[in-house]
Design goal:
Aminoglycoside 3'-phosphotransferase, Chain: A, domain 2, Phosphorylase Kinase, domain 1, alpha+beta, 40% helix, 2 domains
Length: 266
């Protein structure tokens, strides 16, 4: 776990209470009163995302964590290489047993941001998730270890061109939708991608199949989404390649992907 937010960062965001660590995520998120703070991973994305979320209208279908400006008016605070971002706390907890509700919240969120132009920072991301995304969409050639190649082979053979229009989407919905009684789901920790909205739903389905105990019927429930099978293929390629770049394989992890691949291609 990273060190807690330093005193100058807490002061910059007007935090009067001592920070305490929050569960989930990467173990790097802290709460100070009603303010949530986390380290900046890629400053251009943080600033773009905060400016967008500050303007998103309230909705009966989803909530968002409103970003906070620091006292100097910036969206980040702290040392340039060790910056922090902040948002208002939103009540709720993730529930990965509710993939359909997470997908519905994502669809509503994507409709609200459909007008946004493509952000330039996407061209400069080089993290494993960005590379996995580009390989999934045939913007980079597939590479990887033997376990990844075995999983990817049938998916890449079945991949075909698609025509669905791209827009800004959230590429990691399942654990980043919070549920609270009597309130709409809250969409948090927006991972920005420029892909068709159906792809974001497909990533949520792929994650649910591989890791959260969903059955293949989940695939059928969202089959009305455009070019659904191709979106699922790209979602699995994205997750497999990212896993391959970011870590090593265990037999259990390989076994988690195999039924999902078979279900998508059947």
């Amino acid at each position: 776990m990273n060190k807690q937010p330093p005193a100058d960062v807490l002061a910059a965001f007007g935090c009067a209470e001592d920070p305490v660590p929050l569960e989930g995520g990467k173990g790097e998120t802290w709460r100070a009163g009603d303010v949530v703070l986390k380290p900046v991973e890629f400053a251009p994305e943080t600033r773009w995302r905060a400016a967008v979320l500050a303007e998103v209208a309230e909705s009966a279908e989803f909530r968002i964590a409103r970003p906070l400006r620091a006292r100097d008016g910036e969206w980040t605070a702290g040392h340039p290489s060790l910056g922090w971002e902040a948002s208002l706390l939103v009540p709720g907890r993730p529930d990965t047993s509710r993939p359909d509700d997470a997908i519905r919240a994502g669809i509503a969120f994507h409709q609200a941001i459909a007008h946004l132009p493509r952000p330039d920072f996407l061209d400069f991301r080089t993290d494993p998730w960005a590379i996995g995304d580009r390989i999934a969409w045939a913007e980079l050639p597939p590479e990887g270890t033997a376990p990844a190649r075995d999983l990817l082979r049938p998916l890449l053979e079945a991949r075909r061109p698609v025509e669905s229009a791209a827009q800004a989407v959230h590429g990691d919905l399942p654990g980043n939708v919070l549920f609270a009684p009597g309130q709409p789901p809250a969409v948090i920790d927006w991972s920005v991608y420029w892909r068709p909205p159906a792809w974001a739903a497909a990533v949520a389905v792929a994650d649910a199949l591989c890791w959260y105990g969903a059955t293949p019927e989940l695939i059928d429930r969202w089959a009305h989404l455009p070019e659904w099978r191709q979106m699922l293929i790209r979602a699995l390629v994205y997750r497999i390649v990212t896993h391959d770049i970011a870590g090593s394989w265990t037999p259990d992890q390989i076994a988690a992907y195999q039924p999902a691949v078979e279900a998508v291609l059947s």
